[in-house]
C-alpha cells in the first residue's frame, strides 16, 4: 500500500494528472488538476481505511455507514485483496488502491465514478464534521503518520496548521488543553467506578486507557480486547461474535454490578 501512495503523490504533470483521474475513475466534474487535488485525493482514499479499520467486525454491519448500507465482514481484509498481488506496480497499484477503497466508498456497488470532495454518504460525512468540530473545540488530539510504522505516507503533526485549519473551518480558537484540564488527563488518582474498553484492531485503541495503568485501583478496569474493532463490545449480540467479545461483555456487567 505504501507504494500505491507513492504512485499517486508523484503524479503531478498535466498528463499524469489526467492519467491519475482516469485510473481512479474520478468523475468528470472532479478531476485531479493540481498537486493540491492529488493530496486531497490521497487523504480521501486514506479516510476509507480509517473507517474500515473502525468497522472491521467479523460480520456485515451498517454501523460505520450510519445505517445507509452495510460493509462486508472484515472489510479491511476484503479491501486488502485488491492490493495482495506481489507484482503490482505503476498503474496497477493505483487501480488496486482504487478498488480497495471502493469497498467503503462504493458500498452500494453502483457508483460509476468517484468524487473525492465528498464523503461516503451525507450522514457519515456529517458525523465526521461533528467530530472535527469537537476536535477543534474540546477534544484536541494530535495525530501523525510516518509511512514506516504504518501503511500510509508521512504526515507529521503540525500544531499551527491544525489551529489554522480549525479557525478557518469553524471560526473557533482551539482549546488544546481543555480535555486534560477538565478530565485530568492520565492522572487517574481521583477516579473510581470507571471501566474502559478498547479493541485491538481499533485505530483509536492506542489512545485509550491501558490495563496496566489501572492495576493499583480495584474500582477501575481497562480492557484491551484481542481482535476487536471500534465499539465492538457495544454492538447488539450477533451469532458471529468472537469469544473474547462475549467475555468482555460479561466482565463489563460484573464490574458495573459492583458499583
Short account of what is shown:
The chain is mainly alpha-helical. It has helices at residues 2-9, 14-23, 35-54, 75-80, 91-105, 122-137, 159-170, 178-183, 243-258; strands spanning 194-199, 220-225. The protein has a two-stranded parallel ribbon with strand order 1-2.
Q: Notable features of this structure?
A:
two-stranded parallel sheet, mainly alpha, 9 helices, globular, 259 residues, 2 strands, 42% helix
**Oligomeric state of the chains?**
single chain
Please state roughly what percent of the residues sit in beta strands, choosing from under 5%, 5-15%, 15-25%, 25-35%, 35-45% or over 45%: under 5%
The profile of the biggest β sheet is: 2 strands, parallel
Q: Trace the largest sheet across and list its strands.
A: 1-2
Individual helix count: 9
Number of DSSP E strands = 2
Structural class by helix and strand composition: mainly alpha
Mean pLDDT: 95
- As a whole number of angstroms, the C-alpha radius of gyration is 20 Å
Report, as a whole number of angstroms, the end-to-end distance: 47 Å
Encode the helix/strand succession as letters: HHHHHHHHEEH
Low-confidence stretches: none
Query: What share of the residues lie within helices?
Result: 40-55%
Tertiary shape: globular
Structure description:
The chain has 259 residues and is mostly helical. It contains nine helices and two strands, in the order ααααααααββα. A two-stranded parallel ribbon has the order 1-2. The longest helix is centred in the first third of the chain and has 20 residues, at 35-54. The N and C termini lie far apart (47 Å).
Amino acid at each position: 500500500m505504501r507504494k500505491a501512495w507513492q504512485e499517486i503523490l508523484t503524479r503531478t504533470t498535466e498528463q499524469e494528472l489526467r492519467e491519475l483521474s482516469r485510473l481512479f475513475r474520478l468523475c468528470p466534474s472532479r478531476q485531479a488538476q493540481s498537486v493540491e487535488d492529488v493530496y486531497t485525493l490521497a487523504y480521501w482514499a486514506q479516510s476509507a481505511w480509517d473507517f474500515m479499520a473502525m468497522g472491521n467486525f467479523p460480520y456485515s454491519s451498517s454501523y460505520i455507514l450510519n445505517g445507509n448500507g452495510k460493509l462486508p465482514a472484515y472489510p479491511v481484509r476484503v479491501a486488502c485483496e485488491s492490493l495482495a498481488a506481489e507484482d503490482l506496480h505503476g498503474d496497477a497499484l493505483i487501480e488496486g488502491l482504487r478498488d480497495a477503497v471502493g469497498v467503503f466508498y462504493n458500498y452500494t456497488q453502483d457508483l460509476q465514478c468517484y468524487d473525492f470532495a465528498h464523503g461516503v454518504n451525507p450522514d457519515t460525512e456529517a458525523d465526521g464534521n461533528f467530530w472535527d468540530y469537537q476536535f477543534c473545540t474540546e477534544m484536541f488530539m494530535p495525530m501523525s503518520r510516518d509511512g514506516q510504522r504504518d501503511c500510509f505516507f508521512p504526515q507529521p503533526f503540525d500544531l499551527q496548521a491544525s489551529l489554522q485549519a480549525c479557525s478557518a473551518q469553524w471560526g473557533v480558537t482551539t482549546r488544546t488543553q481543555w480535555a486534560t484540564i477538565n478530565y485530568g488527563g492520565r492522572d487517574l488518582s481521583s477516579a473510581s467506578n470507571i471501566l474502559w474498553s478498547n479493541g485491538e484492531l481499533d485505530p483509536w485503541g492506542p489512545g485509550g486507557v491501558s490495563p496496566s495503568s489501572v492495576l493499583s485501583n480495584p474500582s477501575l478496569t481497562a480492557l484491551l480486547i484481542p481482535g476487536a474493532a471500534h465499539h465492538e463490545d457495544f454492538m447488539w449480540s450477533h451469532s458471529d461474535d468472537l469469544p473474547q467479545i462475549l467475555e468482555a461483555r460479561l466482565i463489563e456487567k460484573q464490574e458495573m454490578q459492583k458499583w
